[in-house]
């Protein structure tokens, strides 16, 4: 449990990053994944799943705020009913519940053991969100839930693990799956998904964008730098166009719709996050692949 050792995290088949670990707080092997809570020398407390850094206290707020707020602020009406797929730490749920208008936040996660782990060890992430009366926690497979639900949602947030072959999230990045999501959105609603790293899997990032754009009339993409991931991290939005919001509009809607403080996201960071660099824009033009059930994309493990 104690002592210094290294996490060697493979980003590509020919590149890894080393993270020095000072302490292991907790470790659990679930039916679906291997979960570890550690103290990183640089990033403080951090969550590792299957050998990959999921989030750290150093910068998890950057990831979760950019995942949630551009989508929810770009909705024409403040959201009342929000669906989250994944997001076991509870931090995505935490951000959704900051909206004054939210009446129900449904969070669907396949791994009950991860939820129990989060409730026990990750309070800094969820900050009591699991106990909020607006939270409805459902333990099941995300695809099964989408196939069986009769409810409609103003927004759907996909805080999933990467599309690694044979993983539980593998088929949740396909055209067919996004079509199902479109079918359970209220009018004016939208979706967002984490979209892997433009630094290490640019083709996957672009393909996720192409796939969502194939299904929704409106689509946009953003990115930010995550120090704990040692690279850029991408997000893709469908059904709405957060990239069209001005800096002033973002700041105004934050004041109107959100209760509580944001640590990273504001009008300026919004503008920067949606200003994709020239090399990434050129890849959107070159790569036209769309992910389908017959030809899904995946990130090499």
UniProtKB/TrEMBL annotation:
Give residues annotated as binding S-methyl-5'-thioadenosine: 33, 109, 141-142
Q: Which InterPro entries match?
A: PABS, PABS_CS, Spermi_synthase, Spermidine_synt_N
Q: Which GO terms describe its biological process?
A: spermidine biosynthetic process
Q: Which keywords label this protein?
A: Cytoplasm, Polyamine biosynthesis, Spermidine biosynthesis, Transferase
- Protein species of origin: Saccharolobus shibatae
Under which name does UniProt file this protein?
A: Polyamine aminopropyltransferase
The record lists spermidine as bound by 64, 89
PABS domain boundaries: 4-240
What CDD domains does this protein's entry cite?
AdoMet_MTases
Q: Which GO terms fall under molecular function for this chain's record? A: spermidine synthase activity; thermospermine synthase activity
The annotated subunit structure for this chain is: Homodimer or homotetramer.
Pathway linked to the protein:
Amine and polyamine biosynthesis; spermidine biosynthesis; spermidine from putrescine: step 1/1
Active site residues per record: 159
User: What biological function has been recorded for the protein in this entry?
Assistant: Catalyzes the irreversible transfer of a propylamine group from the amino donor S-adenosylmethioninamine (decarboxy-AdoMet) to putrescine (1,4-diaminobutane) to yield spermidine.
The UniProt record lists the EC number as 2.5.1.16
Similarity annotation: Belongs to the spermidine/spermine synthase family.
Name any one Pfam family assigned in the record: Spermine_synth
What residues form the membrane-spanning segments? Answer: none
**Reactions the enzyme catalyzes:** S-adenosyl 3-(methylsulfanyl)propylamine + putrescine = S-methyl-5'-thioadenosine + spermidine + H(+); S-adenosyl 3-(methylsulfanyl)propylamine + spermidine = thermospermine + S-methyl-5'-thioadenosine + H(+)
Lineage of producing organism: Archaea, Thermoproteota, Thermoprotei, Sulfolobales, Sulfolobaceae
């Amino acid at each position: 449990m104690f002592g210094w050792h290294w996490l060697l995290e493979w980003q590509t088949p020919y590149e890894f990053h080393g993270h020095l670990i000072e302490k292991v707080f907790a470790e659990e092997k679930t039916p679906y994944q291997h979960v570890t809570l550690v103290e990183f020398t640089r990033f403080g407390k951090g969550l590792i799943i299957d050998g990959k850094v999921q989030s750290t206290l150093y910068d998890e707020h950057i990831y979760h705020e950019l995942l949630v707020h551009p989508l929810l602020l770009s909705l024409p009406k403040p959201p009342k009913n929000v669906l989250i797929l994944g997001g076991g730490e509870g931090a995505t749920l935490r951000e959704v519940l900051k909206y004054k208008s939210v009446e129900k936040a449904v969070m669907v996660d396949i791994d009950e053991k991860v939820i129990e782990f989060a409730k026990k060890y990750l309070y800094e992430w969820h900050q009591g969100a699991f106990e909020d009366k607006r939270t409805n926690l459902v333990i099941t497979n995300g695809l099964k839930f989408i196939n069986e639900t009769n409810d409609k949602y103003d927004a759907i947030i996909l805080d999933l693990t990467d599309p690694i072959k044979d993983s539980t999230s593998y088929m949740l990045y396909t055209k067919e799956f996004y079509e199902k999501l479109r079918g359970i959105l209220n009018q004016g609603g939208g979706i967002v998904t984490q979209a892997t790293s433009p630094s290490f899997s640019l083709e996957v990032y672009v393909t996720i964008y192409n796939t969502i754009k194939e299904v929704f009339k409106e689509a946009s993409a953003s990115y930010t730098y995550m120090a704990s991931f040692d690279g850029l991290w991408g997000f893709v939005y469908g059904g709405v166009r957060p990239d069209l919001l001005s800096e002033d509009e973002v700041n105004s809607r934050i004041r109107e719709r959100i209760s509580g403080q944001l640590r990273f996201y504001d009008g300026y960071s919004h503008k920067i996050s949606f200003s994709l660099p020239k090399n990434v824009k050129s890849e959107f033009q070159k790569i036209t692949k769309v992910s389908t059930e017959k030809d899904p994309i995946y990130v090499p493990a």
